[in-house]
Amino acid sequence: DRGYIHCEPYKDGGGEPSEKDFFIRIAPSFLRVTEWSDGMLSIPGLLPLVSDAMPWTWQHFERFHCYFIAATLASFKRLNAHGETAPLRRVLRGAQPENSTELDTSVCFGDVSASRITEDQLQCFTWTSAQTGKDNVNLTDSATVHLAKKGTNSVDSYVNIQGVDGTWWTIFFQYKHSEPDGKETKVKVSEMKEWRRNINDVISKSALLEQEEDRNRWVGRRTLLVVVTNRIVEVDEAEHPGVVWISRDEMGDHLHVFAYRGLLPVANAC
Q: How far are the Cα atoms of 10, 46, 69, 233 from residue 116, in angstroms, in the given order?
């Protein structure tokens, strides 16, 4: 029992999308979303228009993945209404390592919008001095997935989710793609841990800021870095708390019915 989502093609650089409609088959979980119109859920960005003049790029994928996570979160809304919960691993399908305790965290899904994302106008993390960091992460918005401003260090998108125990989580996403020359085919866990340290470093230095509300805003909040990549992951370090990944090997399970056009070898495609 599957249904359809109506996707308006995303047009890079603005302008009106093509009048041609696209329909894709979707998993049953997506049918539980509430933002329906005329029997269809319109989610621009889930199926970008691809042509010779507008090729499918990793930048398109980053935007697509924000919509995908938003639609996934929205599809679980009714679980909470019925007193049910779900662990993060159901949202981050295929995420590794499988024994990650963070992925077992049961979360509430709130009112996440399935049809829009927020594009940040400021970089998530900046430096105010050599000793003090400043973050612009929007911790009050749990209704949309945020696409980070281009050039933000170690973060490409994020979303705020509340655990059933009341603890708030900020899930950061970092996207890493292979270069056109094919030389960068692997990403190491040690690199992921460095990106995680970069995030923690700025957050810890934010505690030195003069404004009390800025110093305390991360108190009691947990964070998780999710690395999404079309490369192969090299597990060169056994311990990596606060870091999970979705690599070339897990992309099919993660995206299930959605295509990822040319980002992976044909042998790895759905």
A: 12, 10, 11, 31
Beta strand pairing call for 125-127 and 243-246:
unpaired
* Distance of alpha carbon 126 from alpha carbon 112, whole angstroms: 27
d(CA 47, CA 34): 20
DSSP E strands in 124-189: the ranges are 125-127, 133-135, 146-147, 157-163, 168-176, 186-188
- Confirm if 158 and 144 have CB atoms less than 8 A apart: no
Query: Residue 135's beta-bridge partner residues?
Result: 125
- How crowded is residue 131: how many other Cβ atoms within 10 Å of its Cβ? 8
Q: What is the pLDDT of residue 245?
A: 96
Identify whether the C-beta of residue 195 lies closer than 8 Å to the C-beta of residue 154: yes
- What are the two backbone dihedrals, phi and then psi, of residue 155, each rounded to the nearest 5 degrees? -135, 130
Q: pTM for this structure?
A: 0.77
pLDDT at 68: 86
Residue 185 near residue 231, CB atoms below 8 Å: yes
Q: How confident is the model at residue 19 (pLDDT cuts 50, 70, 90)?
A: very low
The string of pLDDT tens digits covering residues 202-238 is: 888 766 655 666 667 888 899 999 999 988 999 999 8
In this predicted model, what pLDDT tens digit does every residue of 152-170 receive, in sequence order?
Answer: 888 999 999 999 899 999 9
More confident residue, 22 or 160: 160
Residue 59 CA to residue 61 CA, distance in Å, equals: 5
Peptide bond into 9 cis (omega under 30): no
